[in-house]
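pinned: reference chain
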Amino acid sequence: MSAIRQVVLETSKGMCLAVRVFGSRLDDQVKGGDLDLMLEFSEPVEHPSLLAAKIAARVSRVLHGRKVDVLLSAPNLKRFPIHEIAFTEGILL
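pinned: its structure tokens
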């Protein structure tokens, strides 16, 4: 998990405050599935789609091709119900 944090910090240029894992990968009994990450920022994020895609691709490489979904939380981004799920059920890395 420290490798994931390292990739996130490098790619976000140290701007990411927290990384949460949420979704099916929290249950060790579930096999397969993608890794869902939520990244929390205190400052607005420029080009959020590009940043999320870069982080997903780099983390996927570290995890030997596992599919990774990245959700961003920042002051300039709209919040959806999935954000609340990630905040309440997610585990900080």
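why pinned: The mean pLDDT is 92. Helices lie at 2-11, 48-62, 81-89.
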